[in-house]
Request: fold
Amino acid sequence: MISKEVYMDIKAMHRSGKSIRAIARELGLHRRTVRKHLREDEFPRYRKTGERESILAPYIQTIRDYLEEDDYRATWILDRLKNRGYPGGYDTVKRFVRAIKDRKSRLAYARFETEPGCQAQFDWGDFQIVEPSGRTTTVYAFMMVLGFSRAAYTEFFDRATLESFMDGHIRALRFLQGVPAEILYDNMKHVVVGRDEAGKPIFNGEVLHFAHHYGFQPRLCPPSSPWMKDQASYYTPFGMLSID
Reply:
């Protein structure tokens, strides 16, 4: 069973013109799996199982801390984990270390210029307002900008809630008269609810359903990487799609 994030990747890559063979090869899936999910309009449904926690789970943050310090080899990390009581073997550590290093490599080199219709960027801004009574209140600015034309939409809200987030998107897309292939976000709580053992983002299910309905792919800046704004784009653009 594939994840919702992979399902969204399949849809986005197909819209960008990639063949089923190319999608299967890039995502490491069987062509029948890709074809099956392209025929479906709903996210894959999961059956809850009593999955055991990974033997590596208590040591994941330690491994990440080591790799933040230097580009250590998996064998070096394994020796340190054994001293901390890790009961597992080398292959488990090697796979996890490789996944983190591969992700860092992609973030370092996969940078492309934003093409027309490819990407919009979203963020919240907050402003302190002093009322005539002297009381200070905060208002939140919903801001969406198209990466190529720099056309922008801004709306102010009393609260930066998930409802405001979605309402702002609907009005922004109508104002901008189309839907970009992808929308780039910082790692905000409305969009990301956590990360898996390999460090991949786990998206908010409501946001994924919203993105699927309107036909765009949510994308994330790497944590603490504001320079990704105005630069990141991962799939060939397929243009702007009209909305009702």
In short: The beta strands are 119-130, 136-146, 152-157, 182-185, 192-195, 201-203, 217-220. The longest strand covers residues 119-130. The chain has three domains: 4-39, 57-109, 119-228.
